[in-house]
Structure formats: C-alpha cells, structure tokens
Amino acid sequence: MFEDIPVDVSPMYEGERIRSANMFVELAGPKSIGAELVQVEEDVEDGKVEVIGPNLNMMKEGEIYPFGLLIEIKGEKLEKELEGVIERRTHELCNYVKGFMHLNQRDQIWCRVSKEAKDAGFELEHLGKSISILFKEEFPIIEAISIKIFTNKEDVETFLEKASTAYEERDARARELSDEDVDVFYGCVMCQSFAPTHTCVVTPDRTALCGAINWFDCRAAAKMDPDGPIFEIEKGEVLDEIKGEYVNVNTIMTDRSQGTVDRVYLHSVFGYPHTSCGCFEAVAFYIPELDGLGIVDRDFKGETPLGIPFSAMAGQCSGGKQVEGFAGLSLEYMRSPKFLQADGSYERVIWLPKAIKDSLIDFIPEELAEKIPTEEDANSIKEIRKFLRENNHPIMERLKAAKETIEESETATETVEEEYPADMEANPEIEGVPMAQVAYTPELSLPSSGGMKIIFKNAKIYAEKVIIKRK
Amino acid sequence: MIIAVSGKGGTGKTLLSSLLIKHLSETGKDVLAIDADPDSNLPEALGVGVVKTVGDVREELKVDTAKGNIPKDMNKWDILDYKIMESVVETPKFDLLVMGRPEGSGCYCAVNNMLRKIIETISSNYDYIVIDTEAGLEHLSRRTTQNVDIMLVVTDKSKRGILTAQRIGELSNELDISFKEMLLVVNRITPDNKDLILKKAQETGIEIVGTIYEDGEVAEYDVEGKPLVELSDDSNSVVAVSKIVTRILNSN
Question: What Å distances lie between residue B53 and B45, B65, B113, CA to CA?
C-alpha cells in the first residue's frame, strides 16, 4: 500500500520526536505559522496531492518554513459536524510516517522532517499520499480525499484565515454541545489515591471538579489510554433530567466507591450531591438561614459567611464524601447552562467572592449580577440578608413563600420524621449577649443508644463563653 | 538507558551530571538531560539558557484552563505536548528538559498524569537520559525515578553525605525499586583522607564506582559561574567521570 513511499509508514512511529540536531527542516511551530484543516466538499478529486510552494528538495537544511495542510473529503454520509473529529486524527496519522514529526492541532501544529527521511528521498507529496490512504482506511465513510500542502508564507496566511473561520464555527458548536447530545459520559478516578470513594462524572455540561479536564479531554484520554483512570460511561436511562440522575452513573458510582455512594445528582447540592475529591476549584455550600447557596473558590483567602475559610470547608466535604448541602465544583461548571439547575442555578446563589464573580460576569444572568453580594458587600448572614433585601434578590420571594408554608405547617399535625428546618430568622444574639460561633459542621452524629441515631445536618454551635482548660 | 544522579544537596550531583552528559554526548548518540531539581543549576553547568521550565508550562496550562481560554474541542494533552516540546532546550550535542518550580496550590492530578505520559514519550526518543534529581529521597518515595536503569549516588566526605547515600540505598530496597545497578561516587576526597573516606563509604553497602578528587579548578569555575562542561579534557574531574562512563557503558 505504501510501496512508493520511501520511508516506513506504521503506527509504531507514533510519538517519534525529531531533535533539532537530527532534523532537516521544521514546518510551522512556535517560530513560524501553520495550520491544518479538514473540510467536507462537494467536488473532490480522489487521491490528488498538490504541494503549493517549495517542496523539501528546494528547502535549506536547518531552516523553518510556514506549513498549511488542507484535507478535503467527500462522502455520502459525511457531514460538516464530523470535520473536527476527523481532523483530530491528523496528528496521529501524520506521525505514522517515519521521519515526520507532528504535534498538536489546528493552527498550533509543529512539524519536523528528519535528515534521514530527506536522505531517503522523502518529499511532501509522500506525506500527502500516506495520510490520504490512512484517512480512508480509518474512516470508510470518506469516499474521496484530496490534499493540498502550502509552504509559501502568503498562501499559508490566506489558508490560516480560512481555517480560523472554520475553527470558530466549530467552537460555537462545541460550546452548545450538551448532555442530551451525547451517548457517552466519562468517569475519572485519578483522585482515588486520596479520595477512594470519589468518581468524577464528566459530561458536556459538567467539567471535572478540578477544572482540568472536560468531556472532550476525557474522550481523548479514554481513547489514548483505555486502561487508564478515565473511562466511558454509557449514558443509558435518565432518571431525572433536571437533577441529572442516570441509572448507569449510579451503578458506576456504587461500583467504584465500593458501595459507599450509590446515587448521585449531577446538577444539585441537595439530596444526593456529587461526591467531592479534594482538589475541586470551588465549593457550593448551603446557607440554611437564607435558603440560598454560597460559593467559595480556592483562591479566596478570607472567611466565608459560614465563618470558616475555603480550606476548612474543603476539609469537611472532601475525600470522596457525599455531604448534602455541599458540592465541590469547577469554575468552568459555573459557565455551564446546567450549573446547579435543579437548585435554581444563579437565582439561588446569594454570595460569592468578587474575583470569581468578575470572571463569570458574562455567564451570570444580567438581571441577577448586581443582586448577588461579594465579600465587598456582605460578610455575615445579617449583612447578606440586608443586601439581598435592598437589591431585591429573587431568594427573598422564596424565603417569604417558605416562611408562610412553615407557619402553616407548624399549626398542622406533628410528623413522625422530625426534620425541622433551621429557623429562618435565627439570630445568634440572645438578650444582647454576643455569641461566638465555635463550631460549624455539615454533618454531625451524636453518640446515642436505644435504637436511635441523632444526626445534625448543617449544625452551627454557638456559645456565650468558651473555656479551654488544661487537663 | 536512563541514568539518575542522586545524593545529599551540595555533594556534587550537578558536577557529576554535567560531566556525564559531556561524555555521553561525545558518543554521537541522542542524549537528553533532565534537571529535576527545583533549585536547578544544571543549565548553568551545561552552559545553556532556559526560557521556560516544565513547571512554568504546567502553570500556564492551569491558568488558561481556569480562565476558559482553551477552545473546548481542543485537546489538552496535545497542547501540553506542544508546550513541553517548546520547553526543551535543544543543542547540537544534547537536549535539556528543566522541571523547574514545584506545584502551587490546587489540583495537579490531571496535569501531572498527562505530563508523566508526555515525558515518557519524549524520553523514548533518546539513547541516553541523565536525570539530575532533587536532593534527598523524595524522588524515590514519589517513584519519579522508578524506571531508572542506573542510580548513581554521590557523596562527599561529610558524614551526612554518606548517611544520605546509605538511606537512598535502604529506601529503594524497602520500596522495592530495583535499579539494574546502584553505584556510589565519592566526591571531593584528598590524598590524605582517601582511605578513611573510602572505608566509610564502603559501609553504605553500595558499590563504589568512582572517586573524584577535590578539584581547585571546579571550585574556581563555581565561583566564576563558568559552565563545568568547559573544564579541560585533562582536568582531574573530567578524567574521573570519563572512567565512570566507560565502566557503565561496558557493563550495560
């Protein structure tokens, strides 16, 4: 198949790097310009390879040249949406060619041709020819393929403009990709060494808690390293679309947490929130007095309205724990249209540090942006309440409604399961004596007997005086 | 073949590493030097400048990710791969990768996992890799040196240097890291103390592969900040390391 190619073509050359000491020329890369683009076209002459500009035999050893690679494809089942997927294989397939190094994608490619390949008579047509064959082999839906290679500065510049437009269109589509559009989610257990019951579920609408990897990264990682820490989860049956509950996700969670966690909601901090690793970028936390959510990120050094800094809060809900009212999350997730959608999204957010508010300003609904206080506006429950009231935050409506229901239910029957909501108007000042908050805990079990278990959720312990004595 | 140089800080790891690289690159094979010491000075010893370290690249990627600057459908492995390649200092004789600053706060699981793979791929392209490790034992417990073939431990005449060497030997046994060979290099001996130091060095239980005498020229280069690879071929230290290289290449 590759008889007339003067160098070997095989997957075994993947990962080949050409040292500058061994290279004939460099193409594109950090010191020049270049791009690659796959386009679905109507009219494609199959097998045609054109080199526009100087070929290798006209290039000078040790020099750097611009490089453009246009791959035009045609096929009955080929759609524009597939261009990105097919283009991403260019890196791998170019690397099959011995003596040709290819890094990265789009307008960030970096190639080199080895002296050895040049000496064997390798020309750019051979590259074009090899990848034409490889692409058709990889994607049988490609019926015709033709390759254009540009090495003139002016041509590459024109090509770059065309390519940038195509990338922008593709990015716009990628931004719109949502959980409903895919059949596969990904699980990541990279953090299990210190959070043994944690599996991060990554979906198009939900980046990993660390913020480091999104759905696209997981897709690439699972393919590159199928036995690695990132694996596919067939989306399967949806139990609750709003909360983000899926049968298969629950199964995987149970499996990977050794039975500790058997249910998760991807888009809520209540009920069965996603477990938290330890390295999340931010935490969403419930503020019971105001029935709203606060958010604090790792870089915020002060105290949150709960009276504890990020580090203390992270300590309480990390390590793979599932703690209702708390969820570790990534900043990218706060740009997602599904951001805690089951809880009311930004309408439920009543406090967040200024730095993240500023960085997310384009993603916070315009009418809410001014209504959510930061550390510059309010730092205690009291101050937040004042700010929310003055700025007419939608949570005030919610509080009013909730208060009315509570008043009604207080006069109603006694329930067996005594789960009293925290007093909405709780005030830690009793008869004018200032009280200090000495402990805050998202979950606290008291030792007890008689077949009963007492669990306080979101407990705050206030004391008039704290005495610490040496034993 | 991967050769790592370890030992207590200040015992002469960088001297040994740079001279190993000098000799190995003269064999005409592809040589990669890795400076894994966060307080790195291997580049100076090799006489090359470094623009960007792996640590810098790692931070860059983290910042870009947090700010949402990376197009969603571009793959971070590929971007990191490119940036790491960019950070490799390429010279006609050898290439150099500087690990640089340690991690900041936040999560490094994902990026380190990617880095490990990328550096493995890069490394597989070289015939000889010399790693100048960070001082102490951390590289063993974090298993960053577990694929190493030859572990060269350097000590000087100090009791603490010898003690660290001994601990490196013990810890790699405990952790079940089996290098093909673990060898000891004794640095900065003088004709007067030679016998005494060698006797103490033998007590570490590690085979002594070479000795380097206290070298006034090296000290002078250090004071002036001159690259150690420019030491003349007949300098004591260069000759001593040349013997070590011959011994390693012959038996591997």
Answer: 16, 18, 17
Q: What SS3 class is residue A74?
A: strand
Cross-chain Cβ contact B109/A91 below 8 Å: no
Q: Kindly report the CATH class assigned to A182-396.
A: alpha beta
- Decide if A148 contacts A50 (C-beta within 8 A): yes
Q: Cβ contacts (< 8 Å) between B91 and chain A: which residues?
A: 21
- CB-side neighbour CA atoms (13 Å) of A279: 23
CB contact under 8 A, B72 and A105: no
Going residue by residue through chain B (252 aa), what tens digit of pLDDT does each one get?
999 999 998 899 999 999 999 999 999 999 999 999 888 789 999 999 998 999 999 889 888 887 778 887 788 888 999 999 999 999 999 999 999 887 777 777 778 878 888 888 899 999 999 999 987 777 776 667 778 899 999 999 999 999 999 999 998 888 888 889 999 999 999 999 999 999 999 999 999 999 999 999 999 998 998 999 999 999 999 999 999 999 999 987
The answer for residues whose C-beta is within 8 angstroms of residue A264's C-beta and 6 or more apart is A201, A245, A249, A250, A253, A272, A273, A274, A275, A322
Nearest to A339, CA basis, from A235, A206, A185, A208? A206
Map out the domains of chain B with their CATH numbers.
2-46+94-100+126-251 (3.40.50.300)
Locate CATH 3.30.1650.10 in chain A.
11-176
CA terminus-to-terminus distance, chain A: 84
Pick the CATH number of A11-176 from 3.40.50.360, 3.30.1650.10, 3.30.70.100, 3.40.50.2300: 3.30.1650.10
Residue type at position B32: L
What number of C-beta contacts closer than 8 Å exist between A and B? Answer: 114
Q: Which of residues 190-249 of A touch B (CB under 8 A)?
A: 190-191, 208-214, 216-217, 220-221, 224-225, 228-229
Strand runs labelled E in chain B:
2-7, 31-35, 89-90, 95-98, 128-132, 150-155, 181-189, 207-213
What type of residue sits at position A382?
K
Q: Which of residues 315-344 of A touch B (CB under 8 A)?
A: 331-332, 335
pLDDT number for residue A393: 93
